[in-house]
Specification:
Helix content is 30%, strand content 46%. The protein is of the alpha+beta class. The N and C termini lie far apart (33 Å). It has three helices and six strands, in the order H-H-E-E-H-E-E-E-E.
């Protein structure tokens, strides 16, 4: 029995755009790619934020205290249809001092071309 390899090029292109917009702080372009009821991890304070406005508020707070930069690497689909992305994450304070420099995985659930949920794997 062979397993078909799923073409994730559309999801990969969508997520590359999201990372580029995040690094430019172009929040409106990203929110347009999210489901209205998106579930997003609050990596800074813990817990979750919900909906586009929740993500907007969270990122606005986050960008006021730290300067995160994320570069995606490998993209692959898991057996549940989620997209797993290896991400190099560098977080600096507002003076430019590196607070964190690490690799993480971002796990996306994408429905109808919109991001429905994202999880972070340390």
């Amino acid at each position: 029995m062979t397993t078909a390899i799923r073409d994730i090029s559309k999801e990969r292109d969508l997520l590359i755009s999201v990372y580029e917009c995040f690094n430019r702080r172009d929040i409106e372009s990203i929110l347009a790619l999210m489901h209205p009821e998106v579930e997003w991890p609050n990596g800074m304070e813990g817990g979750w934020v919900h909906g586009r406005e929740g993500v907007r508020d969270y990122w606005t707070r986050q960008w006021g205290v730290v300067d995160p930069h994320v570069d995606p690497g490998k993209f692959e689909a898991d057996d549940q249809g989620r997209i797993i992305t290896d991400v190099h994450q560098v977080v600096r304070d507002m003076k430019g001092t590196v607070l964190m420099d690490r690799m993480v995985q971002h796990v996306y659930l994408i429905e109808d071309g919109l991001i429905r949920r994202m999880d972070i794997r340390e």
